[in-house]
Model the fold of this input.
Amino acid sequence: MKYPAVLPFADILPELDSFDTIIDARSEGEFALDHIPGAINCPVLNNEERIRVGTLYKQVGSFEAKKLGAPIVAANIARHIEQLFADKPREWKPLVYCWRGGNRSGSMAHILARIGWPVVQLEGGYKAYRAQVSTALENPPQVDFRVICGTTGSGKSRLLETLERVGAQVLDLERLAAHRGSVLGHLPHEPQPTQKMFESQIWDKLRHFDPNQPVFVESESKKVGNLRVPDAVMARMRASPCIAVHLSRPNRVRLLMEDYEHFAQDAGALNGQLEHLVQLHGRAKIDAWHAMANAGAMPELVDQLLVEHYDPAYLRSIDRNFTEYTKAQVLELADIAPEDFVRAARSLHAG
Done:
């Protein structure tokens, strides 16, 4: 094969995991919005340089823009080779892409190929990749979902994490979304990804699952924080067999105090989030909850939130949204110690 080989994503996809490095040659801003999972960012033009060259292209013309951009591109590619790829053997096989598979990835792929590496360039670039993801999520693979259901604080997320550790297949949408899926679900110091990045991560997880083994997933709503679960994936989940996790309310309070320690230690942040519930519960109730938080009565506040907000909301939605819930397998958790979750996870994984 002659290199660089310029191939469509349909041809690359079966071999995607065989590339030693996936190189995203776009700017760091473009990369942050979304990229092929596992790719590294090696900007041929960084954010500022891309704006300078693009502005000159629009205002003057392509020749002047290319004359400005060429030495910048050459210097950036040289730096990436020196800093990241100089130690790579002759057999090192990279995949390179940019926005549309044009000048930026073409420049890098050409130089890598001239060195002697068997480089592949993605025809159509990120846009072709993104089209593939969108199409795939409209008709996701026929995975055997098993939906972990349970009221807030019943340990669903911990159970998913433990299932993954014991070798089960898991689609942890809250972890992919960097959000715990409720009004208090925002994770401190961890922003949510973009919608496109969220979808890329879901697509990447789904394509790696063994269709002959179950995939455990939590009974999410359509939105996880600011992100939306793809409709077809949501529909598959809602029609799948359910597992109902039962945990006593005192243990649920204990678990939530552990998982939401950042709110338990910061009444101001907690009260800010509780403001979102004013329309549901009225000003007087929210003010009372604020007072409890300010007084440090966190376990009592958590208990009230379960009884008056979370549990009623869960009971209103679960039967309506997950059609197999009435036939759910019941899983009783006696406590919230790690060994309790290990026992439960192993029993589910064993089938």
